[in-house]
């Protein structure tokens, strides 16, 4: 396997013989743009398992994606994709950076989901994008922006239902898109507790926010999400 790229928590690998790409999940966990960083045994397996389950459901619901199938405990096969340098954030409740910008009560549920776009640049703390900046920076055109937003909202509705069935509230999540060889927008990267805020009915956190806040039981809560998804009969893969 040839290492094509490596990020904070994942590696992109290429099998030259099979001409296939793979995404390998690492045990690293980070926060605050790598200011906080350590390894947690088993994290790669947990996030790989959760991502695979969620992607399988999204695929069955017509979301185009780079994901092909789960290969082993830490690896999924993916299609070749040119990533768009944008983080698409969907918010169902007020939390995190949103509260620093607007006067809402923490955890307040929105009347409708909010979709925001941020340019991927850790050094500049992922600045928010406007439609004018999309055009100015030559990131995406109006049609592509609308498509990403439409996909994000559809993904949100599907994920909310998935998590509702296992007694989890989807507060918000971050996804990334890319373009395939036909220049079509497709979902890429991951969806797991690293990229979602997931709350229990009593507000208990089941996501990376536990790590950000220095709470214990981070991997135990990730594992609980995976176990609940596995036990949900309609989500079994």
Provide a descriptive summary of the structure in words.
The protein is of the alpha+beta class and 237 residues long. It has two domains: 77 residues, 2-Layer Sandwich (Phosphorylase Kinase, domain 1), CATH 3.30.200.20; 135 residues, ATP-grasp fold, B domain (D-amino Acid Aminotransferase, Chain A, domain 1, 2-Layer Sandwich). It has six helices and 13 strands. The strands form three sheets. Strands 8, 9, 10, 11, 12 and 13 form a six-stranded antiparallel β-sheet that branches. Strands 1-2-3-7-6 form a five-stranded antiparallel β-sheet. Strands 4-5 form a two-stranded antiparallel ribbon. The longest helix has 24 residues. It starts with a strand and ends in a 6-residue tail after the last helix. 33% of the residues are buried. The model has no long low-confidence stretch (mean pLDDT 96).
SSE topology:
Elements: E1 2-6, E2 10-15, E3 20-25, E4 28-31, E5 36-39, H1 43-60, E6 67-72, E7 75-78, E8 82-83, E9 86-93, H2 97-101, E10 109-119, H3 131-136, H4 142-165, E11 169-179, E12 185-188, E13 196-199, H5 209-212, H6 218-231
Antiparallel strand pairs: 1-2, 2-3, 3-7, 4-5, 6-7, 8-11, 9-10, 9-11, 11-12, 11-13
Helix pairs in contact: 1-6
